[in-house]
Design goal:
FAD-dep_OxRdtase, globular, flavoprotein, alpha+beta, eight-stranded mixed sheet, 16 helices, Glycerol-3-phosphate dehydrogenase/oxidase
């Protein structure tokens, strides 16, 4: 996706970071008529966004800290996502059991949920309801009943494929005129006296360097915001993100069919066990982290903690480290906060920090979360317009459908697509879940060239046409971009290793890669997977080693 001009380029706004927030800013600003460029040294949403819990929180847990503003904002944004991205964001019931000795007793949880329901009137899929102990035992028989005092069934939301949320923000931002440069490193800020006048960039593949002149530069690099400023713009520490890790396992004995949100015995932190894409996610941790932001992996201790708490709440699960298919770890982009003994008390809200008057033309986004990305973008664009000295312009993203939901009646489209698709029902459903109305584009590509109708990943039924669309239309550059953040087959049991060679071959035959590029991409993909600590990669390496000894 990296295409640079030989000389400087002039824009109204340069955004550093193509995660969920940077892309949302680009979309909002472009919709309001600004000339926008977004730059990221990696791929769309490949940082913190892809390591989230994939839940669109209505903000229930923020009631505990009396952060009513964030609760109201979260409820509103969840409601807008239900309406504007119905193919990606779904109602997600979760059971909240409470046990004797919990730090949050049942009556307090019920009171909080009652208050939440009042705040969410007209903006939720269903009201919460109490579940007596006997009903819990009938409906969730594998759940521990030792000390169980009851439960509440609460409705929140899930975005199973947060990566696709980023892709659609990119598609819409580009349609509105924004340019997005991935795999392009910001090598420095452009300074003229006390003013930041843009950024200096370098294409990671070609080494080509360029400058982008911008009236305003927004640093939306998530946990990396301080690194962008370091050595160029004096600033207090802004990021104090905490590390969150998850593990992914296959269905286990007694695995629930709804999310279970419970209090951990070890540290009283609320954690989840939830079904996702045919498997289960256990998470997450919330640890202070001052290590290398580029080397964030789940530790053995975190994995043991998540397995132990799951085995405690589901006594028959019997999960061991050998059951972990892979782990996911990232750093939350939270504000730097001193004197906090409980990381859960650090604000999950966002602020737009201006570096003026010392460094005019530069804004840094501190904080932010998946649910409220649109609201954050609206706030940032409002501030950009103020800095530019332009009058207010109406925000359009509250009512703007995502590209995959760009139809008058989503349910009618989904029904018609399923009936008319030549594919089996499960394959058709997957295409709808990933691409929405753009699923028709996948079928069109496959119909135009029978070779693109080939299945490249048996488990999911993914088609060769998706590889071509990822490269030609969705900005994918590397094999990792294709497998992990476009087709999502890289998040299956073997992390896409069984499909990698076939997908690389499709790129050679249909998207301009040569054999040398394909080999390099396959090697690079295995390197990228190491941060997930995947069982399949270890098994694959052991098999290759065994084959070499046998020969």
């Amino acid at each position: 996706m990296s295409h640079h001009h030989a000389g400087p380029e002039d824009v109204d706004l340069a955004v550093i970071g193509a995660g969920i927030n940077g892309l949302a800013i680009a979309r909002d600003a472009a919709a309001r008529g600004l000339r926008v460029v977004v730059v990221d040294r990696a791929d769309l949403g490949s940082g913190t966004t892809s390591t989230s819990s994939r839940l669109i929180h209505g903000g229930l847990k923020y009631l505990e800290r009396y952060d009513f503003k964030l609760v109201k904002e979260s409820i509103r944004e969840r409601h807008l996502l239900f309406r504007n991205a119905p193919h990606l964001v779904h109602d997600y019931p979760m059971l909240i059991p409470f046990y004797a000795g919990n730090s949050r007793p049942g009556p307090l949880i019920r009171l909080g949920l009652a208050a939440f329901d009042v705040m969410a009137v007209g903006r939720q899929q269903g009201r919460s309801r109490g579940v007596p102990t006997r009903a819990v035992a009938r409906r969730w028989p594998a759940l521990s009943t030792r000390g169980l005092r009851g439960a509440v069934l609460f409705h929140d939301a899930q975005v199973p494929w947060a990566e696709r949320l980023c892709v659609e923000l990119f598609l819409d931002a580009r349609r509105l005129g924004a340019r997005v440069l991935t795999h392009t490193t910001v090598t420095g800020l452009r300074l003229e006296g006390d003013r930041v006048t843009g950024i200096r960039i370098e294409d990671n593949r070609s080494g080509e360097r360029a400058e982008i002149r911008a009236a305003v530069t927004v640093n939306a690099a998530g946990p990396w915001i301080d690194r962008i400023l370091d050595g160029q713009v004096p600033s207090r520490r802004l990021n104090g993100g905490t590390k969150g890790s998850h593990v992914v396992v296959d269905p286990f004995p007694g695995a629930p069919d709804t999310c279970i949100f419970f209090e951990a015995a070890a540290d009283r932190r609320p954690i989840f066990v939830f079904p996702w894409a045919g498997r289960y996610v256990l998470g997450s941790t919330d640890l202070t982290y001052d290590g290398d932001l580029d080397e964030v992996v789940a530790s053995d201790a975190e994995i043991d903690y998540l397995l132990a708490e799951t085995n405690r709440i589901f006594p028959g699960a019997g999960l061991t480290p050998g059951d972990v298919l892979y782990s996911v770890a990232g750093v939350r982009p939270l504000p730097y906060t001193t004197g906090v003994s409980d990381n859960a008390k650090i604000s999950r809200g966002h602020t737009v920090h201006s570096h003026a008057p010392a460094h005019r033309g530069l804004l840094t986004v501190v904080g932010g979360k998946l649910t409220t990305h649109r609201a954050l973008a609206e706030d940032v664009t409002d501030e950009v317009l103020r800095v530019l000295g332009r009058g207010p312009r109406r925000c359009l993203t509250r009512s703007r459908a995502f590209p995959g939901a760009d139809t008058a009646d989503w349910r009618a489209f989904a029904g018609d697509f399923t009936r008319s698709s030549p594919l089996p029902a499960a394959q058709s459903r997957r295409l709808l879940d990933l691409y929405g109305v753009r699923a028709r584009r996948v079928l069109d590509l496959a119909a135009a060239d029978p070779a693109l109708a080939e299945v490249v990943h048996e488990e999911s039924g993914a088609l060769a046409a998706e590889v071509v669309m990822a490269i030609r239309e969705e900005g994918a550059v590397t094999l990792g971009d294709i497998l992990l953040r476009r087709m999502l087959v890289g998040l299956g049991a073997d992390m896409g290793l069984s499909a990698a060679a076939a997908c690389a071959d499709v790129a050679v035959r249909h998207a301009g890669w040569d054999e040398e590029r394909a080999r390099a991409e396959l090697a690079g993909y295995e390197v990228e997977l190491r941060r997930f600590r995947p069982r399949a990669l270890t098994t694959s390496a052991s098999r290759r080693s065994s084959d070499r000894r046998a020969s």
